[in-house]
Amino acid sequence: MKKIFSYVKIYKKSAVLALILMGLELSVELIQPIIMSIIIDEGIVGQDFQTIIIWLSVLIGLTLLAFAAGIVSSFFAADVSQSVGHDLRRDLFSRVQDFSAVQMQKLTASSLLTRITGDVTQVQAFLFMFLRIMLRAPLFIIGGIIMAFTVHVQLATILVIIVPVLLLIVFWILTEGIKLFRRVQVRLDHLNSIIRENLLGIRLVKAYNRNNHEQLRFNKVNNHLMDDNKKALQLMELTMPIVMLGMNISLVLLLWFGFMEINIGSAQAGEVVAIINYATRIMASFGVFGFLLMNFSRGKASATRISEVLESKPSQVIPKTDSSIANIEGHINFENITFSYSNMKRAALKDISVQINAGETVGILGETGSGKTTFLQLIPGLYKAKSGNLSIDNKPIKEWGRAIRDFVTLVPQEGFLFSGTIKENIAWGNEKAQFDDIVRAAKDANIHSYIMTLPDQYETRVGQRGVNLSGGQKQRLSIARALLANPTVLLLDDSTSALDANTEQRVLESIKSKSCTTVVVAQKISSVMDADKILVFDKGCIVASGNHQELIGNSPLYQKIYQSQMKEDGLS
Amino acid sequence: MRKNRTQDVTTSRHYQGVKVKKPKISNLNETISRIWMYMSTYKSLFIFVLLLVVVSSSLSLLGPYLLGVAVDEIITGIEKTNLIIIIAILIGVFLLQSVTTWFQNYWMIKVAQHAVYAMRKDLFSHVLRLPILFFQTRQNGEIMSRLTNDIENVSRTLNTSVIQLTTSVLTLTGTIIVMFILSPLLTLLTLIIVPLLFVGMNWITNRTNRYFKQQQHDLGDLNGYVEEALSGHDIIKLFNQEERVKRDFIEKNQRLKESSYWAQVYTGFIPKIMNSLNNLSFAIIVGVGGIFAFNGMISIGVIVTFTAYARQFTRPLNDLANQFNVILSAVSGAERVFDVMDEEKEDKNDVEIKNRKRLKGKVEFQSVYFSYGQDDNTLNNVSFIVNPGDTVALVGPTGAGKTTVVSLLSKFYEVEKGKIMLDDQDINKMSRSGIRSQMGIVLQDSFLFDTTIKENIRYGRLDATDHQIITAAKSANAHTFISQLPDGYDTILDSNGYEISQGQRQLISIARAMLADPSLLILDEATSSIDTITEIKINEALTKLMKGRTSFVIAHRLNTIQHADLILVLQEGEVIEQGTHKELIKRNGFYAQLNASQNRAINE
């Protein structure tokens, strides 16, 4: 909340103006009952026509004033809430861009998306309301009581006693109610997750004949949901009857004591009417408390989630690209590297030492979770090793900073496309690329002939609102994107897995002709068989290394993999 | 509000603010009468609630009137005892008003929640019994939305809107009538605000629509961009493009700020107009009413009554249209729910047969025909015989009808022409649950529930002991990796928990099938890339699982096919070749060609 407030401060002027205008509106409503008492006492009871006319015009004038104030406040309040929303989005987005891969993993893309979109909208709506409506109800209650005092002290005392009691009761009901609603939400989430599971796994449910089992599971939660929902709603519905009763009782008391006061001549009829009017208006103000509290707690939750992102420091500010380095050789050296993800107990990489010479092609095999991907991701510095030294061209990776990414390119397994044209996607890393180069990269990645069959060829739109590409096509586009960057070190993270054997071979061959240092993670031995060196990973360690012939000779694990694949492949 | 966990990046695109949907209702009367059916468990209570609404609305009219009378009496000078009587009546009225208001709401919630409970239950039970075809032809998101949002909508509306709408209508008409009786002239003057309200609202909505559309567009654009930038975070880093992405974002952010500014300014006018009209009516009642009172046309008490009434009617006037829309949208939601309930169940003709014997597993297709809807035949004259315990490999291009064959066997669909015999008995004469209780299934996507590994395996046989579960996991080659997980068998498999690989998921679903100990087995091999070592484990486990059971395998792996007792080669819904691997190779037909081309690719 504090963090958000510092953003509002920038638009102090508009915020203060909006609040002042709100106060103006409020004062008009607070004055109305007093004018009413004057009209009654001096005009009607005192038989003075002039007074009535004068005060009628005043009332209309004030109405117009309040109207103008309300309209103008809308501009200022919208300015504050939209500007703060804009700034929050800007800072959130740029902060997230500076996040390391580790931070990304911790906060997850989907949660960050809700924070940047949904939560900011929530805070915006909250601010807008805060500046215009939120303070109104509490201020009106306080102001109303104060005004009542100026009208008639003894009678106003009744309000001072009853209103706080009611406020306490209402507050208690609301806090209890919000607690109960939170439980309802949990039940609802649970119920929905059962429904979702059943939809996704409907074949399984049917095949295992688990209708009754699922129905029972559903009924149980459905039952809880109904009970909790009833409890929460029925409690909340207590608010209005209690407030009505309390305020109506105060009306009756006002009548009674008003009558006594008038009888002894220490009060006038108009004054009693005015205080009754304050009481009815205060009652109406109570109605919005539930709404306010709900919004407040929602806004607060959103604000906390936003602050969490804004206050998390980028783990280490990576130095900018150093344009003075023209090229590198591509010699990679891992020395006793150990790495573990924060959310896992077991180290992902344990004491890895390996040398990759410039221009070499290295293949990596291993089970899922054996550390292959992590190994690759350390090279461009997406993650930082816990211990050990990783250097490229004998310069530690820390000293390279972001500059290393101009020479090292990693192609992830899942081909990721941005919305835009195919051309833009291939040229994504390099906006100034020539069309010829783009085509050459596409040809190298074996995707050119497919692109030419599309309606708009290189101008065909892909991504969210464009044509759907298959996994293999996406992978090839990603490879083309990487090749266009003309990397010295190319890292392929199983990025040919969705290609058929023929195409894969062609792509790998054209990569081979590039003479860059290449590290290929693969599932099939056939994809890495020709590599200068093959590393076999198991549970974060390199358990075997050497070329194909050597490994066939000395690694039982490699033999096992080879035999199973050859058995399959060679069935013929 | 907490969203469902898995509704992540893709669905959050809907997070684009409020959209005003015009509810579409094709059969209002029928839908309402069906909602009524659900409420009729508490029919008398509901009628009583409506009666209470009438009482509480009348009392809310009586209160301000009596207040005015009391004020007049006080001004004109009244006997203490008379005032005590009026006050006693007032207390009675106020007390009764609060009590009736509370009870009407209390009971309405009871009626509504029970109705919604029953609707949810019926809907879910119906959905579980719908044929697979229903789920194939619709998007999960859409069904999901009917089961969750639409019902929630009905629930919320039944809770409050029914009472609110009746109260609004009653108080509005009641207030105007009583006001007319007290002073027709002052009433007419007060009603000036009604046309003003409509003019004002019209002016605003005409303007906001345009800005809202623009805002919606800009917001969608921005959110889409954020989504992309977040899921492509690694790529952005790898290509050193952070600055460019920030620059693009700033541009979109600015555009959004401008369009939403005006949308917000205009919507901000609405409550202010309402307020000002309230103020105006107050000025008219007090000022003009004062003039009337001065001339003796009305009493001061009438002014007091009117000020209270005026507050009572401006709000319902504004709410009325809203509430009506809310109710209509709930009705249209209910209609969508009932649409699902009107879908035909798959087991409508099923008879429950008790005491089933264990099947031997002989399967025979006799000239089976099948098609989805009006399309060409998906299966065309398919015939084959499988002996108990044999393994059948289904081979052929996508869309050839492999999945349809196994789906027909599990009675997910019904045969159009021809017969399927199971242990020499027509499956049309067997119940779905009878067949499925002896059938195990391992699907491509290896669906697992968001619960512990143990419970996921237990799904195969609900009464299995932990020991039996571990035994099943061991023979499915899953025990080793499970025991390495931090919580072992109690590891919860959801997106917040420990991530296990696709291959490991498959091992768990094999363990599940192992535990079920079925006599018929259906296997859909995964095409997705699974690492070699896990694949070896899967193959071993499957071989164990298939032993002694009649197994149908939708095969992608050549070694499965090679070892099958029968290979069915399907093309465009027809079995074009069948036999063992050797026989088919010898025959030198489609299969032999397929085989050769695959080998060439590998050896190249």
Question: What does this protein structure show overall?
Answer:
The complex is a heterodimer of chains A (572) and B (604). Chain A is an alpha/beta fold. Chain A has 22 helices and twelve strands. A six-stranded mixed beta sheet of chain A has the order 6-9-10-3-11-12, sandwiched between helices. The longest helix of chain A is centred in the first third of the chain and has 49 residues. The model of chain A has no long low-confidence stretch (mean pLDDT 80). By secondary structure, chain B is α/β, with parallel strands linked by helices. Chain B is 63% helix and 9% strand. Chain B is built from 20 helices and ten strands. Chain B has a six-stranded mixed beta sheet, sandwiched between helices. In chain B, strands 2-1-4-5 form a four-stranded antiparallel beta sheet, with helices on one face. In chain B, helix 17 links the parallel strand 7 and strand 8. In chain B, helix 2 runs antiparallel to helix 3, helix 2 runs parallel beside helix 5 and helix 2 packs antiparallel against helix 10. Chain B is elongated, with a radius of gyration of 35 Å. The N terminus of chain B is likely disordered. Chain B: Keywords: ATP-binding, Membrane, Nucleotide-binding, Transmembrane, Transmembrane helix. Chain B: It is a multi-pass membrane protein.
Main traits of this protein?
heterodimer, A: 572 residues, alpha/beta, ABC transporter transmembrane region fold, Rossmann fold, 6-stranded mixed sheet, 4-stranded antiparallel sheet, 22 helices, 12 strands, elongated, B: 604 residues, 20 helices, 9% strand
Structural class of chain B: alpha/beta
Q: What is the helix tally of chain A? A: 22
Q: Termini distance of chain A?
A: 69 Å
In the CATH hierarchy, the architecture of the domain at 318-407 and 487-572 in chain A is: 3-Layer(aba) Sandwich
